[in-house]
From TrEMBL:
Transmembrane segments: 314-333, 340-362, 368-387
Listed InterPro entries: A/G_cyclase, Adenylyl/Guanylyl_Cyclase_3/4, CHASE2, Nucleotide_cyclase
The Guanylate cyclase domain, residue ranges: 430-562
Protein name according to UniProt: Adenylate cyclase
Origin superkingdom: Bacteria
SMART domains given in the database record: CHASE2 (SM01080), CYCc (SM00044)
Signal peptide: none
Keyword terms of this UniProt record: Membrane, Transmembrane, Transmembrane helix
Keyword Disulfide bond attached: no
Gene Ontology MF term list: adenylate cyclase activity
Biological process according to GO: cAMP biosynthetic process; intracellular signal transduction
């Protein structure tokens, strides 16, 4: 028990350290390997949640295959782009955001026309950051330390355009599988902090500058939760086209009603085959990059992004600490089957909670608490299994050892019923006593080792004969033994078995004595007394040790009958009660010399009882062999 508690305590300490370590790393920004495991589970939660309707205040104008066919070239000429922006501007949108990099010069007339169109309506142009492999940059903003992605360089639009419109960085952060997970709303390049394309577009649309908060950004009174580095988690609406998308050719041809664009955030981007960025998402293997950006803009304007800020991470960290401790405590419970069932239930409940929370826009980690809990639980379970197996082996050895001190029938009964004879039981039984005559004198002259071997041989013979006749040796008393028939359970044949055992013992005792050295055989003999009747069977002994015993007048009479056998030079003295109860072995008795019943006085007992005396004949040995 001490080892078991020590292993549990050690497991709890190590589990606490393991959980705290993972929680600390998670709060510091996450673990790359853990994020790789979390990503497919996040996708699965998107699929379980299913597509959601996109907000109607964001519209995509797509430069698609049909537009390119009608215009005749790709990229679209600057003049055509100017016409497209002007047409949209006349519909009075809140902002026109162009997910197009204008870093190369076009025709002079086209560039001037596009710059003029950009000045006529609130607009945002795309810039792109070039990133290295260095750590995130640390900047200071109003006394607060900001950890931001750092771009080594920026691809900016030509000055002609950047002077006419606001700029926003269009970089999208993806995981190892290429799925976009979040948009960095702020990044640093050199000594300047740049807003992202979605943040600049939403800010202009809401006519509000962003206000940085510890766990997010607020725009026009609408808070948006962000993660480390002001990364906005993406909550996809559905497959491509879920955000309302209109072909640019329809706008160029004037086939779009003004209400379609009025007071909307219009995002222009390429969806032409092979001409624009695409990303795999849980809903679509080729979601256009412009729709990813439009999704982020909708999050900022409507506040429906996923919440995975420091508060959510703290919940993850708390579960990473408590869940493994709970698993260890459940496994240490002695009712292990129920413990494993509760572990499975708790795991299922946590996974279910993450699914429900995800559907409500809260991204709890499904993997962190389970990663923190499962390895310690497996190791602890293996340690417990090893300990239990070692204890089982030890108990097996102990059981084999203890079986040597109790008869097999009694041992089996105690295993099945540990409370056997805790309360005394009055029942009928046959009692046999056997004793070596002259052993005390022999032991005075024999060496101790030879005396021990003589007793061992005597005990072995008695034990074999008694077991073969369905009795058990209640106790070996030096050079004698007390034998019971009727325990642990009485049988109608107990008396018969007792008589058969007496005959067999007599025969084999004679053979055994005959094989001893003459100096010993000439000095020892044996005597057997047997009786049957009511006994009180119970446990006797102290608190530290107990044994099964039978007491009562029947036991005393059986013991005194050995004296009757010795005084009449007989091998066995049977009470008349036992002889008559074992009537089906009378033919066997007759093979020996059986004297008629005679009254015999029992020492310490008033009156006399009828007794039968039995002596061996030449046929007795063969009979005993057949009865074994």
């Amino acid at each position: 028990m001490g080892n078991r508690h020590a292993i549990t305590l050690a497991a709890l300490v190590l589990t606490c350290l393991w959980g705290l370590g993972l929680a600390f790393l998670h709060l510091r920004g996450g673990i790359a390997a853990l994020d790789r495991l979390e990503a497919p589970l996040a996708d699965l939660r998107f699929v379980i949640q299913g597509p959601r309707p996109a907000p109607d205040d964001v519209v995509i104008v797509a430069i698609d295959d049909q537009t390119v066919r009608e215009v005749g070239s790709y990229p679209l000429p600057r003049a055509t782009m100017a016409t497209l922006v002007s047409a949209i501007g006349r519909m009075k949108p809140k902002v026109v955001a162009l997910d197009v990099l204008f870093i190369e010069a076009g025709s002079t007339e086209g560039d001037l026309a596009l710059a003029s169109a950009l000045r006529e309506t609130p607009s945002v142009l795309a810039a792109a950051g070039l990133f290295g492999r260095g750590p995130p940059a640390t900047s200071s903003q109003n006394g607060n330390i900001l950890t931001l992605p750092e771009a080594q360089d920026l691809l900016l639009p030509r000055a002609t355009f950047s002077e006419a419109a606001a700029l926003g960085v269009v970089n999208i952060a993806t995981d190892a599988s290429g799925v976009p997970r979040h948009i960095p709303l702020l990044l640093r390049s050199g000594d300047r902090i740049w807003p992202s394309f979605p943040l600049r577009a939403a800010s202009i649309a809401l006519k509000s500058d962003p206000v940085l908060q510890p766990n997010g950004i607020e725009l026009g009174g609408m808070p948006s939760s962000t993660g480390d580095g002001y990364a906005l988690p993406l909550r996809f609406y559905g497959p491509g086209g879920t955000v309302r998308t209109i072909g640019a050719n329809h706008v160029l041809s004037g086939r779009i009603a003004e209400e379609t664009m009025r007071d909307k955030i219009v995002v222009i981007g390429a969806t032409v085959t092979g001409g624009g960025d695409t990303f795999p998402t849980p809903f679509d293997p080729v979601l256009p990059g412009v729709e990813v950006l439009a999704t982020a803009i909708a999050h900022l304007v409507d506040g429906d992004a996923l919440v995975r800020d420091n508060r959510v991470r703290f919940v993850d960290a708390a579960m990473a600490f408590t869940l493994p401790i709970l698993f260890i405590l459940l496994l240490s419970w002695h009712r292990s089957v129920l413990g494993f069932a509760l572990i499975a239930l708790v795991s299922a409940l946590w996974i279910g909670l993450t699914v429900v929370a995800f559907a409500h826009g809260i991204w709890l980690s499904a993997t962190l608490p389970l990663l923190a809990a499962v390895p310690p639980a497996i190791l602890f379970g293996a340690a417990r299994l090893w300990l239990d197996r070692s204890r089982a082996d030890s108990l097996t050895i102990q059981s084999k050892t203890l079986r040597s001190f109790q008869p097999p029938s009694l041992t089996e009964r105690l295993v099945k019923d540990p409370g056997f004879l805790a309360m005394p039981v009055r029942q009928k039984a046959a009692v046999v006593f056997i004793d070596l005559s002259g052993f005390t004198g022999v032991s005075e002259v024999l060496p101790l080792d030879e005396t021990r071997e003589l007793l061992r041989a005597f005990h072995r013979l008695v034990d074999q004969e008694v077991i073969s006749h369905q009795g058990f040796v209640a106790s070996f008393m030096g050079d004698g033994a007390m034998i019971l028939f009727g325990l642990p359970d009485p049988s109608p044949d107990d008396a018969c078995h007792a008589v058969e055992a007496c005959i067999a013992l007599s025969s084999h005792m004679e053979s055994w004595i005959a094989e001893l050295p003459e100096a010993i055989a000439s000095r020892i003999g044996f005597k057997i007394g047997a009786h049957c009747g009511m006994v009180i069977a119970s446990r006797l002994g102290g608190d530290s040790h107990q044994h099964i015993a039978a007491i009562g007048d029947t036991v005393n009479v059986a013991s005194r009958l050995m004296e009757v056998a010795a005084s009449h030079h007989a091998d066995v003295a049977l009470s008349d009660d036992l002889y008559r109860a074992a009537g089906n072995v009378r033919s066997v008795m007759e093979l020996g010399v059986l004297e008629e019943t005679l009254p015999a006085s029992i020492r310490g007992r008033s009156g006399s009882i009828p007794v039968w005396l039995w002596r061996r004949t030449a046929q007795s040995n063969a009979v005993a062999e057949r009865l074994r």
